[in-house]
Amino acid sequence: MGNLRKIIHIDMDAFYASVEQRDTPAYQGRPLVVGGRPEQRGVVAAASYEARRFGIHAAMPSRTAQQCCPQVIFVKPRFDVYRQVSRQIHGIFRRYSDLIEPLALDEAYLDVTANKRHLPSAQATAQAIKRAIYQETGLTASAGVAMNKFLAKIASGHQKPDGLTLITPGQALAFVATLAIERFHGIGQVTATKMHGLGIYTGADLQQWSEAELVRHFGKVGRWYYQLARAADPRPVNPSRVRKSIGVERSFARDLETLAQLQQALAPLAEQVASRLKQRQRCGYTLTLKLKYADYRQITRSYTRSTPFETSAEIHAQATQLLIAHWQQQHRVRLLGIAIANLQPVSPYTQLSLDLTLETTSQVLSGQSSG
């Protein structure tokens, strides 16, 4: 096991809810939900630890959350604030490593094999990062320290909140053996059910299977399961990790019932997606429309074309086509979403060419000459 990496996974504790409790002292120690209110048919985006004790969790309808805990406080999300705090936290990360892979606003991997502060160990580095986050933001984070990303991510959730768990190389195999297979990266409920049918419930059970047997039952991904069962994960921390999609969705206080209402609601979503693409200097070839009906049934429909989507007009037009083709008119709609995937960087030369074309066209229309 020579040349082992030293990986830290940092995961902020109930991030959105903790920011709200920090900024409003009256919320501290009380069950709190960040999300839409029950009368607006909202959904829980985040729940404080006090709310979680009542069984409240992310993606739960707000009405259900209120039934679980009638005294729960509902707070509207402030994503601009969360993004600002996230930037502050990532600034702390950069003091210790240049190899940072963000996963979301509230979590990231750091490779600290050679930490910038020359601290004696990855564990000491994680402690220093946690301490700096608390001193500078008033928020707590949990950290997992291990030789790879798979183990570090599991470790960070082991002693939440405000935890720090170290899994040494010598402990790795025994630790994996104790895990329920649902906790393995890439094993969802469908695969877990299939594994249960084969008598695989824990990492120890999975370790008994050969690579060939796992491939026979699960296809190529069986090789990945074989590696994880042996505490192996070759993935490096990737600082240039590219988003897979850019999207926006919105829930409505009142259901939308007509095509005109739906088309009108799609327009600002298309504008927001186009704005986010421009900010990140991306375009994309696949557009996905998401519809959630009043009865919570959900469909997604996608269209891929040979030229990329960039402008709000293009995005709105294609989303409308998908809507007309797939909306079940007898059903009212409570949520709409648009996402662009299959992303590529916008070529600066393409943009320059477009700008010159627009400039030339403008000059011709106004009777000007470049001579």
From TrEMBL:
The record marks 16 as: Substrate discrimination. InterPro entries: DNA/RNA_pol_sf, DNA_pol_Y-fam_lit_finger_sf, DNA_pol_Y-fam_little_finger, DNA_polymerase-Y, DNApol_IV, Rev_trsase/Diguanyl_cyclase, UmuC. It is an enzyme of class 2 (transferase). Its cofactor is Mg(2+). Binds 2 magnesium ions per subunit. GO terms for biological process: DNA repair; DNA-templated DNA replication; error-prone translesion synthesis; SOS response. Mg(2+) binds at residues 11, 106. Residues 7-188 form the UmuC domain. One of its GO terms (molecular function) is damaged DNA binding. Its EC number is 2.7.7.7. It is found in: Cytoplasm. Keywords: Cytoplasm, DNA damage, DNA repair, DNA replication, DNA-binding, DNA-directed DNA polymerase, Magnesium, Metal-binding, Mutator protein, Nucleotidyltransferase, Transferase. NCBIfam families: PRK02406.1. Poorly processive, error-prone DNA polymerase involved in untargeted mutagenesis. Copies undamaged DNA at stalled replication forks, which arise in vivo from mismatched or misaligned primer ends. These misaligned primers can be extended by PolIV. Exhibits no 3'-5' exonuclease (proofreading) activity. May be involved in translesional synthesis, in conjunction with the beta clamp from PolIII. Monomer. This is DNA polymerase IV. It comes from Halomicronema hongdechloris C2206.
